[in-house]
């Protein structure tokens, strides 16, 4: 069922006889000539062999192909393509839909969930795929700490998982949980994995890797390429491309050039400038998608452990909600969207990005904290923060409002936002010590509680449980340095709502309502502050990809989807030759260029010999 | 008669012991330096800010147990002295440990990346040296001429160009093509995925090699040109050249047999030193051309920090310089009789 490995496109190295020039020039020219007359391989070559290859530019490294270990976006995205999950997320709406499980039901108390597994499915090596594989995968993660490395959080609340027969999986929970249709765990083949001694050391890199997704992982050359072949037996139907190749480009500008040339079919993570430059180019489609991320910053409300032991050296005045809100009144989010993101973002209020329609929330009326420096100044004046002679206010306790702000120096957007914020806060009498630092330095400051304002941002999944959970009191550190979240936020009411939404397993609307209430608390407390939802900007060759599914549809992204929709659905364009002159023309021109260069070299060589001769 | 022979023998013995002492001294220095590098490497990167486990799990929800498990897998739950002992024991077996990011032995990663780096940087250094030396000789010999001034100006101009920018310019113009000019070379990487066969792969890699090497050569050849030129200038007024001319030797022969060999020495040192730095020295060019070498590996390792990886690479980079220095020290006396005494 794995498509056989077919050697790539034609190779016609043309060797021209020497004799252009003498010595070095001749050899050099001949070599370069052969090289230059090579047809440009890659996406074009695919069309000639009637095999369709889709090439995707990537830059992230492979941490591991083991679903028990992989944490990075690239590898988890590849798992989406090569393994089935119990459920999937609809491409149009992001809502959970059937995956390996065709249907499911739960007991009245929500503690027992029964999933009906697809019948007659097979692994890519031909072995049958049954409910036992599912039960084994989950149970292994519950029993073996190494197997829990990447996704242990999903099975934290599991009491028992069994497979009473080949098509039934039964999961018993300690407590009811509403996230049972959002278990992002690849199901692995028991017959392959039960022989593994140490899950911490097995990287699952014996190719082809046995899986059950719409693609099969067949090759990996570290920092060069990753190859996947179509699995024609997949129950949802075979993918339209025969092969996916992830090619490494360390430099984003070089990747964009590769797209312009057609060496790759898809590039993600474009900057606004790159998107503007590509927009309108022939055969290139820019996809400006609503993002999955929020960008923002948190304010240190006073770091403490779960037992209430205070630590760190956050500015004491920041415990005052009025001051925190005044800071938010001083920030012009629309200006950030315009000047930093060139319009490729959305000004944000609620914690959950707007693309998740069910959960996203926006304040209304008097609850809104919109850009209003005058209001900020009035608030501060009334709360007793008096303006000093040097333009910096003093807290009622007499401490000057000099705040440190930690910004990631590897993120140009954050650096630009930081500069704007320092200016705006200065305008209302808050001095900012702008510390644009290495992410490691920033992380150390956060975990030591030694910061005042600090930048952050998260990618939000279709199920928002994870990003909500990091702001419960439970996420506070047990001792300094062990925090799960990134804000030292702890609020009783928020925690109650968190528990309620987690327990709300059979009424999605009520759960969504709790989640919106939680965002209202976050917004009002102004410890966790969201600034923007940056767009995901991507581009592809429309002469190589005729059509591709986005998520959500319309307006959604291609890269980093929840599900395999984009690459599974991508349709090869019929005209492969597409842009640019034909191969022979390129060969001819490059040969001509090389001839000119070699000829000049030869001439210089001869001239030199001649002049030396003249002097004899 | 016998007396003279004895003196001769004693002379040879004395010279041999002097050579041995010279070689032994250099070897000892190299070994001590290597040892110092290994120890430094361990502690140097532990001073880096940031926590590898947190960096690896950025943007993911992980329980305290998951964090502890990662710490255990990385060996970071051990006390520092224990980690140091493990590191030393590993070094003795050429085992640098497991990379945090790639989860494969560091030695495997280095083995995969060292070939591409040596290929790119080695080719670049040799071509640059060849061009630089050739042009330097001409410029120095006919110093003050139009050719000299033009050559020096061009070389210095290219020398001041950032390699990253020049590489990108090559990609835009020569790889993706502009206007009537089609793309002649690949935009990046070392090989086209899926190309098989020795000949095809060689040609393919050569094709990929052209632009990175051209970038490197353009930026660095000025070093060789300037050194060669100034050493030539030092020699032009020398008496032995006047003597050679007085003997009636043609100018070309004076240049080739007398001036060049003497002027070449500083350049040879430079080539050796650069060959040592070659292993770690072309990070920017590797990055812009997505060349899968040690430089980009080091860069990706520093961001975490991936301690086993960066430690090992530091040792490799430093060893290369030390070994090349040692070679230069050992070869020098063979090239220049003046150093032997």
TrEMBL record, chain B:
UniProt KW keywords: Cell membrane, Membrane, Transmembrane, Transmembrane helix, Transport
Record's GO cellular component terms: plasma membrane
Record-linked PROSITE patterns: ABC_TM1
CDD domains: TM_PBP2 (cd06261)
Domain ABC transmembrane type-1: 114-328
Gene3D superfamilies cross-referenced by the UniProt entry: MetI-like
PANTHER family: OLIGOPEPTIDE TRANSPORT SYSTEM PERMEASE PROTEIN
Family: Belongs to the binding-protein-dependent transport system permease family.
Name the UniProt record assigns to this protein: ABC transporter permease
Lineage of origin: Bacteria, Bacillati, Actinomycetota, Actinomycetes, Streptosporangiales
